[in-house]
Structure formats: C-alpha cells, structure tokens
Amino acid sequence: MLLYNSAVSGNCYKVRLLLAQLGLPYETVDVSVVDRSNRQQLLGDLNPALRVPTLVLDDGRPLGESNAILWYFGEGTDFVPGDRYERARTLQWMFFEQYSHEPYLAVVRFWLAYSGTPEKFADKIPARMKGGYAALDAMEQHLAERSFFVGERYTIADIALYAYTHVAHEGEFDLDPYAAIRAWLERVAAQSGHVAIDA
User: Fold this and answer.
1) Is residue 195 part of a domain?
2) How far apart are the first and last CA of the chain?
3) Cα dihedral across residues 50, 56, 62, 65: positive or negative
4) Of the chain's two ends, which shows fewer C-beta atoms within 10 Å, N or C?
5) Is the dihedral of CA 113, 49, 15, 2 positive or negative?
C-alpha cells in the first residue's frame, strides 16, 4: 500500500495510527500541507479533492478521506463495533470530528504552527477558537462518565478524535480545564500498538 502523507497532518496520522495498530505495512509519499502547487500532478488521478491522506491499495484502487480510510481498515476488526447502534454512534462521532472539531482545532493549529504566516489569520482565529472550545466542551461532557467514545471500548471514533485533540496545544488551545479529555488522551496513548504523530 502507498500512503500520500503529511507528517504533521492529524488526518494522515489517524491512518498511520490505525495501520500501526493493525500491523499493516505501507509506504509513504511525503506531501506538503503548505505548498500545494503539485497536488494536481500528484493526486489528480487518485483523489478529486487533491487532499491527503490518499491511500492506494495493493490492487491500485485509491481511497481518500481519513475517516473513510479508517472505516475501510477498521471494518471486521475490534476497532469497529459489531452492534448496529454502536456502529452508528461510531459514525456519529466521526462526522462530529470532521464537521465540528477538525475545522476548528486543526485549522487554528495549522495557521499558528505550520502556515509560516500566522499574522494573516489573526482576525479569523478568535471565531475558530470559539468553535474549537465548543467541540472540546461536547467531548468533555460525553467523556465525563465514559472511558471511550463508543461502547466503553477503543474504536476508530477515538482515533478520529485523538489525532487533533492531542496536539491542540499547538493551536494554543488550553486543555487544563478538561480533565475527562486529558484522562482519555492518556488511555488512547496507552493502547497497544500506539505510535506518536512524529514517529
């Protein structure tokens, strides 16, 4: 398998984390998240959205979108619940991550830590920070009496939400008030096969 990958992207990290925990080998092609000038040439025939991660399976079929890739590899494993309701709940939290979490935590992190021009985004940051804290509030409330997001066990919903939450400090989000989230982050990091984002 071939993964078009960015080392700093949380979306790419989700895929690398699950593949590591499943013990599946793959190769990578590094793609810049700042310089997008070669995206059409690199990904145009594989992913119309021109985004990473994009994965090429051993048979040559491409697959894009991090959470779709998580579902593809999680299907039939302990990372995706067998119960119909819990499967839907897993998807619920994965949709939440892409709609209510990633557009705030990930975007502010990119602007501040990786864009190279954080000053260009200064007027947009407060609104994005507000959205990010709203997502963290929802997560904290859900985790207050739970160990993981779905069915009291580690699933791809946790992987999806862990990726950008555990590096939220790079976007200057303060996790100190979020005791349940911090405890959950520790539980995820303790899972068998866990690898760090910079591994």
Assistant:
1) no
2) 18
3) negative
4) C
5) negative
> What type of residue is 121?
F
Q: How is residue 164 written in tokens?
A: 């950008």
Q: Are residues 11 and 60 in the same domain?
A: yes
Give the span between the Cα atoms of 139 and 127, in whole angstroms: 19
Asked whether residue 63 falls in the same domain as residue 112, the answer is no
Residue 9 — φ and ψ, nearest 5°? -75, 125
Strand partners, 5: 30
Helix, strand, coil % (nearest 5) of the chain? 55, 10, 40
Q: Which tens digit of pLDDT belongs to each residue from 18-53?
A: 999 999 999 999 999 888 889 999 999 999 999 999
Q: How far apart are CA 126 and CA 54, in angstroms?
A: 31
